[in-house]
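Postdoc handover notes: sequence design on the structure in folder B. Input tokens:
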């Protein structure tokens, strides 16, 4: 007998029933994000067919070239949520400042932060991309929200998730009660529960995921850890496998299901790393922790970091608990100025 089909809508409603005081506002935000995800998915699937590829010629706030799909995704999400009356403000990778809800629309008690299209350099080559989102409760008194509302640590997130536009489109989210994955059934346009209660395997598959082209710019501890995982250390002759898509959503999704670790370390050119704390690292950290994994900047939990700037960056180590703990041990040696090669067995310990 086939299992009963659970749409994302039903899943959200059933979760909400556990909170009799819930107003439904929060559920509506999640539906609207799912709707935006479906619209972006449709465009991504047609990216090779319609005249949407190529550069717009503009650059985003980070000086990176913006492609049309980035702008499309940015606008679709904003417009899917600007009039619902549940948000007081939004923030996006593609906009320098906080985005206030337009005057003609009512406001609400939540804020949404998002990376509309993650891994956008992969669009032209038909490789997976994604959308990342993070929801906080409003804390300021300002009706249309202020910086205080968007600059909250990850521990204060009330929901986080992503949509991966891969071989199929999947939406994965958490509201602090486990991690649940839904696969888009394109013929009916519904996200159906396909991966209930996801848990990161720990120890998981021995996979590390990093842009190793940056090796020469890494700290000694970072280099030693990757050497260790490559089996170049006498303490670990058995190499891990390497996988790196270059879209964090895709690399993280694999890490969530198979285990291992995705990292984007600090390096000599990017001393704070590359990924953005508020709409890349923190939402993925909430998912990782909810799935029994871990996310760290190398020293402390990503979720504990108090943001100071909307677009601030952070180094990121995320995945199976044993791997992230190992990363923290290797990186701690940088602080102590340890000699290369000292004690990798003790540092790696459980892996
Ligand atoms: P975005 O497309 O939103 O700017 O993010 C790209 C990010 C992330 O998805 C990925 O992990 C990383 O950049 C890849 O960077 P490198 O090309 O430096 O490896
Ligand atoms: Mn991104
Ligand atoms: Mn992006």
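Designed sequence:
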């Amino acid at each position: 007998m086939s299992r009963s089909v659970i749409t994302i809508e039903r899943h959200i409603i059933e979760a909400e029933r556990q909170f009799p005081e819930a107003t439904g506002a929060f559920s509506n935000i999640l539906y609207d994000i799912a709707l935006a995800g479906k619209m972006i998915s449709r465009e991504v699937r047609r990216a090779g067919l319609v005249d949407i590829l190529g550069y717009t010629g503009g650059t985003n706030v980070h000086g990176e070239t913006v492609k049309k799909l980035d702008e499309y995704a940015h606008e679709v999400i904003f417009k899917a949520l600007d009039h619902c009356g549940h948000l007081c403000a939004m923030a996006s990778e593609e906009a320098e400042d906080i985005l206030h809800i337009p005057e003609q629309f009512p406001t609400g008690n939540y804020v949404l932060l998002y990376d509309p299209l993650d891994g956008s350099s992969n669009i032209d080559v038909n490789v997976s991309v994604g959308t990342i989102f993070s929801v906080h409760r409003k804390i300021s008194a300002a009706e249309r929200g202020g910086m205080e509302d968007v600059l909250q640590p990850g521990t204060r997130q009330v929901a986080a998730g992503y949509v991966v536009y891969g071989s199929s489109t999947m939406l994965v989210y958490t509201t602090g009660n486990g991690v649940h994955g839904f696969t888009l059934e394109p013929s009916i346009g519904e996200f159906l529960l396909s991966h209930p209660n996801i848990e990161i395997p720990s120890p998981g598959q021995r996979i590390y995921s990093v842009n190793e082209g940056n090796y020469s710019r890494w700290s000694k501890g970072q280099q030693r850890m990757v050497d260790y995982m490559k089996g170049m250390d006498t303490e670990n002759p058995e190499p891990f496998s390497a996988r790196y898509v270059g879209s964090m959503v895709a690399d993280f999704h694999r890490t969530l299901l198979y285990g291992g670790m995705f990292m984007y370390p600090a390096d000599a050119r990017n001393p704070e790393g590359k990924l953005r704390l508020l709409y890349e690292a923190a939402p993925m950290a909430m998912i990782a922790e909810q799935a029994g994994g871990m996310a760290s900047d190398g020293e402390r939990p990503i979720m504990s970091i108090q943001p100071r700037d909307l677009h601030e960056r952070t180094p990121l180590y995320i995945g199976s608990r044993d791997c992230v703990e190992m990363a923290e041990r290797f990186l701690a040696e940088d602080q102590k100025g340890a000699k290369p090669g000292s004690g990798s067995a003790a540092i790696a310990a459980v892996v």
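Context for whoever picks this up: The pocket of AHG (ligand 1) is lined by residues 93, 115, 118-120, 211, 246-248, 264, 274 (CB under 6 Å). Don't rerun without checking with the PI first.
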